## 1
Amino acid sequence: MKKTFLWGAAINGSQFEGDYITDGKGISEDDVMPKSKDRRHKRYYEIQKNLFYPTHEGVRFYRYWEEDLKRARDLGLKSLRISIQWTRIFPKGIEEEPNEAGLKYYENIIDRLIEYKIEPLITICHNEKPIYLIKNYGEWSKLFVESYVKYCKVIFNRFGNKVKYWLQINEFNALSLRMIKEDIDENELRSKRQEAYQSLHNQFVAQARAKELFSKLVPNGMIGVCMAAELCYPATCKPLDNLQQINDERRLNYLFLDVSIKGEYPYYCKKFFSDMNISIQMTQEEKELLKNNTADFIGFTYYFTLISDYEINKKYHWHYWPKGENEYLEQTKWGWTIDPLGLRIYLNKLYDRYNVPLMIVENGLGHVDSIEDGKIHDTYRIEYLRDHIVQVLNAIDDGVDVLGYFVWSLLDGWSLGTGEISKRYGLIYVDLQNDGSGSYNRYIKDSYNWYKEVILSNGDICRR
């Protein structure tokens, strides 16, 4: 194992910071999403009365960041993934000048991380887009892209001499097509497809333009694309199941990466766009921009794997997870498969196809934790993390270039999907309940002390 391997942990702004309008911050898309079973797949535009909004208080990282970073230092982290909230820099997204209070807040965090010899990994857009832009310009419209590029220029100029590693739009493959629903008529479905894939194209352009800027302003840095890993297994050895698996991985993974890493739309998109009556508005200048400004590495989040079953999914869609159960894998309480070996498989498949460095930017176990006398004995999380880290080490032995591994998350945070905190991921327990009650006190879990030993041994204790 290289000594430069980034043993990390991750948090983001919206799920952890709180203080959602403090120091001039504007309202983000997550700030208008109340706690609900499927909050990330709905679109809200206003804050409603008498509803609970997890992001408004978060876990108060905005107030307690100095204490929390000391815990990150004591853990021995080599890197911490954080996000810059767009609305702390440009509250509406349309301002001529950035909000200095927001820039200074993140500068203080970055400087403290550097003091502690913790490499910052910055996510530029982690589900925190300005709601004003979405309402008034349309999400990822041409004008929206201009605002994103302006925002990137500001943070590259301010932090580019301090931060080497950057990610662009978090899990953009998982969230880009969420506007397409299954329970609509064919005419509306056709319209939604067109809208969604044009929006996706504009995201490709936005990231390429940001990369073009980054190459000039941060010449010694690396900027990656951020994916949600969607590894699919064929349900059986039937040829149709295997064809289904190929198509599922194309639509969930490879379309996004072929454009981001290879710089052009793959051949299989032509037939799909034709079959679905989709016409992407794309200029020759945009084609050249995509070709010449590809990502430096692939960052991805990894939590579960999927099954491709032709009989269940033969009504061909390109916009939702394939349905099917894997009888060989256990599941979490929330129905996510637990598949450590799948991580090694996914790493090998990506490296074989793209031959660029890879980074696991999130991996962790959501679980209900119990606190007794200030202690949390989360042996189940230790087992989960160990099993996945072993497969990362195996993939490196296979020859895959892996830059780092990041546990989700450093602290317990509010769930992006449901807005609950009982689905805990942190190495550090935060005393909060689903209704927002609690002291916000932090408690070290057993998994924190275990991961500290992993880092000290550079992963060797996982091989025993």
Note: The chain has a mean pLDDT of 94.
## 2
Amino acid sequence: MSDIICIEGLSKSYADGANVLSDVNLNVKDGEIFALLGPNGAGKTTLISIICGIVRASSGTIMVDGHDYVKDYRWTRDLIGLVPQEIALDSFETVMRTCRLSRGLFGRRKDDALIEDILDKLSLIDKRDSQLRELSGGMKRRVMIAKALSHEPKILFLDEPTAGVDVELRKDMWRLVLALKERGVTIILTTHYIEEAEAMADRVGVISKGKLALVEEKESLLRRLGKKTLRIELQKPVAVLPTVLEPFNLDVEDNGSTFLYTYDKNANRTGITKLLSELSSTGLILKDLQTQQTSLEDIFIDMIQKENS
């Protein structure tokens, strides 16, 4: 898979000395969903704004589909659709005319059938003639996505696209994003909803204090850093952990009625069989056993804490 965006040595600083991005190097593959994670102020929106030509970089180069984003601005901008965090719409305009205008600004011929198809996929078709002031915040967010898609971009940037959207609408947007990927659209997603990255992304990048701390395949990241926890609930609590269980480094919760055993699921031996055998020898009676997989959110929080320590 070839790279559609190539970023080298990208930095951004302001006159007051604030350094927002520092020597960012990143390649985004054609047709992938790339999730960019990071806390507020990490530089996610600034990075996207630079690629889209809204903010000027202090140094570095960006190639979009083989074209320099400064020298060939019109070409590169034509390939990009952007859904910003802020809702910026004309309140007295209709949904349909808003999308028509956006398509026209990119020099595309009128195609109401295409726009209606986009609106339908976003559950907006019955609102096509409604003024934007009549819509809820979640509906306006979906109009922003429809507007960004109206000129059929090859690359779509989604900057916190589901902020303020309810769970049902969020899942609808996930389905739309995955459908766009199937059509060959490259999607760069920033989000605070870690489950979005876990549900959709092919690769994940973590940015902290203006620097890329990590870029890795999502599945590889989960395998490499992911751990599992075995939760053991007892019929009756114990006052003291039995001596034979001490080597397993168990965490004791619920006043002695729950043991937590953390293990590497990729290890040749997890130690679970031996743990259960030793547990049986103590005469303790089990009430329930559960396993829990470390999530991408757990990994993200752990990385950010290490970056800030």
Note: The radius of gyration is 24 Å.
## 3
Amino acid sequence: MQSNAFPAYRGRFEYVCLGCGQRLPGDSLFYTCPHCGGVFLLEDLNFAELKLTSGQGWRDIFDERAKTANPKLRGIFRYYELLAPIFEEEDIVYLGEGLTPIVAASKALEAYVGQPLAYKNDGQNPSASFKDRGMACAFSFLKWLCRKNNWDEVLTVCASTGDTSAAAALYAAYVGEPLKSVVLLPHGKVTPEQLSQPLGSGARVLELPGVFDDCMKVVELLAENYRVALLNSKNSWRILGQESYAFEVAQWYNWDVSDLALFVPIGNAGNVTAIMAGFLKMHDLGIIEKLPRIFGVQSEHADPVYRYYSKPIDQRNYAAVEVKPSVAQAAMIGNPVSFPRVKALVEKYTALAGDQAFNVVQVKEQDIIESMLLANRHGHIACTQGGECLAGLRKAKEAKLISANELAVLDATAHSLKFSGFQQMYFANTYPAGYGIAPKTELSNKPELLLPENARSGVDAKEFAKLGAQAVVDRLGLQKK
């Protein structure tokens, strides 16, 4: 096929409720089932047509598209037929999202951890987080809907701990009319760096006291009673876009994922849901022959999914938890809206790949922040959620849940600069008691002033250079050539 040609295949989608099985047309805005309140997965009713192409055929198609000059096929829609194949080329929104690199750990880090590992740097997406994958798909769907229905105004709304609002505001600003963006944030629970993003994109930012779960309940009520486009992970089209993470991992490793173990922070459970769904889809089409193992990771300060899967099957009972402050702020969610999706997909996943194909590990806050520091001191750009994944790998290794021949692929969901404040709090030892973090002085890193503030005053540049150079020599103990 020609790599620049836009695909001819078109799917036909329905929402399928995971609670009661109710089906609703996919060309409408639905987030929760009007019959039972359950959440949806999207199903392509034409999916069987894709099986007419062999697994090798699909691998060849996606590898050929890697050469494309067509911007609409350069990002997540390289995998158009596997994502949301109802859009026309004009509907697709592309801001450079997707195709983020997987960076192997340095030899020193690998030796320290005692396990082969790599980071997938999803912080290199346009708004500096993985949420852009889902937003590219969700906003393409909204463009398609607006064109189809001649809508003259649609208000997009989301609750957020930071990354969702940044991505939603960015994509809304790019698409423009008829879309307008409003984001709802828990007051004081979003880093200044993340707060600056929706403000800079021109979104209307509204804050409420409480935590993310409180804001989520508000936007759910709005979506149920008003014509607004909800952009949290209850939006099934957003989850479809995030499946691209799985497709990219498979293609990066030449479609052989048999010895991979993926570590994913759970948060609102949308990403781990999408990643499982993506691998299941590829397996069904014969694109991959074996499913990789998946480890969800949760902080002990927000761990409802861990608590559920830590019990024997006959004793499992899901319950929300009250969260405590967490440095993995994007994952500080006590009642993930996508948990029913996780449960349904884990059942399918483990039926195909065995009980050990999916695990959830719980980690301490101290280990999260120190694992982030460890990763970044070895050349990575991991956020606190990336630190959570490394802490999860170390916990899995300690519990003998991962074998020495497996390659751990860790999800750095956002750019480290979004969470630089937590790093600074560690260096300055200023964490409030609720975090339960006691910084170690040997891990602190601070700038060192070499000369008094007034050393430059009244001294010409040449003389000051000599003073400065001598101060460096004295501090570092340098020897002359």
Note: The mean pLDDT is 95.
## 4
Amino acid sequence: MAPILSVRGLRKVYDNGFEALKGVDLDVQPGEILALLGPNGAGKTTLISCACGLSTPTAGTITVGGYDIRRDWRAARSLVGLVPQEITLESFEKVKNTVAFSRGLWGKPRDDAAVERVLRRLSLWDKAEGNAITLSGGMKRRVLIAKALAHEPRLLFLDEPTAGVDVELRRDMWRVVDELRRDGVTIILTTHYIEEAEAIADRVAVINKGRILLVEDKATLMRRMGRKVLRIDLQAPLATIPERLGRFGLALGQDGRQLSYEYDTKAERTGIATLLAALAEEGIAVADLDTEASSLEEIFVDLVARDGSGPAAEPGEAA
């Protein structure tokens, strides 16, 4: 299946000489949710701006649905919706008119039924006659999504869509995103909430200093790069870890009743059986065992640290 978005050799150099993107290659498949993760200044917003036609690349190509974003710009951009970080709404315009206007900007004919469908999907229909100024921050974010969906795009960019939104509304937005994906909309999401990517993304792309570090299926990535921690609850507390157990790199809990053992899931042998045997030899009785896998956040932090953190902030990029 041909990718809905294809990026090849994308470079962006600003007038001051700052190179925000350094030969980015990326393919996004129809109907998937891709989480684009990276620290501040990594190039996320610049990449999105180029793909949406808001910023002109210095070099490289971008196609959307097979259309070149520069040569066939009208056809390419008609397939793209963007929900920006900033909340930019006409304060005293009715919600339904705001959405209908966005539809008209893309040359779509007036369709009150289509506007109603979008507003109902985002739980905004009861706010349709209200002005944007009367809405909460979370509702305003929903209106931004409605505006982006008004012209029925196939590719939706969500740039920090839940910034400043409370936990309940954030989870509600995850539900909406999942429904859009089921309807065939491809979604590229940037977020500072790593649990957001872990909850809803199919694949993860990590960008740092203008380069893509990896693009991988989320579950595969967590299996390949994740580590696990074995939590060992003890029947009796320990004051210190016996010297003969030092080779296992154990950590002792504050109350002395729990040992933690970190192991590599990719290793041929985890060492757990050897550890349990060594505990028995030391006369340490085990009450319970539990394992905890690395989170996507831990994997992300490790990847960026290996690449070298602290990229310079690029012009116009807040995240």
Note: Residues 97 and 128 are 8 Å apart (CA to CA).
